[in-house]
Amino acid sequence: MKALRPLIISGKEVLPLVEGGKGISISNGQSSGAWASAGGVGTFSGVNADSYDEHGRVIPQVYKGRTRRERHEELIAFGIQGGITQARIAHEASGGQGRIHMNILWEMAGAERILVGVLEGAKGLIHGVTCGAGMPYKIAEICTHHGVHYYPIISSARAFRALWKRAYHKFSDWLGGVVYEDPWLAGGHNGLSNSEDPNKPEDPYPRVAELRKQMNEFGLDEIPIVMAGGVWALREWEHWLDNPEIGPVAFQFGTRPLLTQESPISDAWKHRLLTLKEGDVYLNRFSPTGFYSSAVNNPFMEELRGRSERQVAYSAHEVGEHNTPFPVGARGRMVYLTAEDKKHADAWIRQGHTHAMRTPETTLIFVTPAQENEIVTDQINCMGCLSQCQFSNWSQHPEHNFSTGKKADPRSFCIQKTLQEISHSEKLDNQLMFAGHNAYRFASDPFYRNGFIPTVRELVDRIATGD
Known about the structure:
By secondary structure, the protein is of the alpha/beta class. It has 2 domains: 7-271 and 442-462, Alpha-Beta Barrel (TIM Barrel); 299-423, no CATH class. It starts with 6 loop residues before the first strand and ends with a helix. The protein has helices at residues 23-26, 29-37, 68-94, 111-121, 139-145, 157-166, 204-217, 267-273, 299-309, 339-350, 369-380, 415-423, 456-464; strands at residues 7-9, 12-14, 17-19, 41-45, 99-105, 128-132, 149-154, 178-181, 188-190, 225-228, 249-253, 281-284, 292-296, 311-313, 324-328, 333-337, 355-358, 363-367.
């Protein structure tokens, strides 16, 4: 194993080992501060981060607003206060070592307002901001204004070229690095384009080499690339080190930090990670963001798959093969199915999926009465946690009357509800459980033998050896 050379990241020489920022309260001030204390780059999540009362108890994010717009404002206020809180905790836990970064999603609600609010409220405590899930053009201007390095998360050289040409070339001094996130193997939301086959993963090496070539053309030879997604043991990436085709490189670990003593996830979740098998992490497109995402294949995912599988196309009028009448809803309004699809619908109804729900694509899905009630209730209770949401048809843009202009899609789900639930309870099976595709390796890696759960420092030391 080649020696792991330190890099200058966000203005300080550190180990080129980066903690991946993971969703709602899954990487927080304690975990990121511990990672920074071990000499690397800790990353806390700025997505609905937790705040605490005077007794150190998590303040539940309960919404009192009567409208989505009112709840949306409450959510932004929660996000700003939580981000400031976690930045302070991370700073204290780091002991002045390493670097502290904040991770946000560009498609989360009020991303710009939350980022500005946290950077202003936690001045000097955050050294860098990583940002993906969309095309974060304005991240460069915001971070430069606050004297903080920025790290766009991209999945292709083409995406970085677009960001550079439109905005980043004006703010190059504060570009700290470029995070290449493998769109097939990373956990959470994935940046697969419409031209890429989700079932045919591509080798990241030529894609990152292309990114480096692109960056060199822009005079960014010394700006590090952070390889993220599918990284488990550095021995498997040794050929990337001191390689002129790759240039300065750091490695981001998102999944392995889940299984540490400082990780805030529940004990039930940690023990579940130790039992996963290859293929248990499922690349799907049920997220209300519209992006692909990777999650553990559990009853929650099975139920979402079932909704889409129990689906038929309909026509509002009798036309062509759509000539078989079918009543929908409490008023029994008639639509038309093909004769074959009517047979499928009747079979699903006999199985108990008696309620048909319309989708934006002129199809019907069949669910139980309880499932329909949950779906409708969640849509009504929407707090506008995304910039736009397929599940509830919320949009944060007033010029569009706070609507996507499309029907709410019952094939998706309320991502805020399920992530809050799994991050603050022991409930797993009926919640969304994000993980990278290498999570199955916990079960076979000798480091975790007999259920061993390391401290963050023990994990960082282990990773630095190449294992």
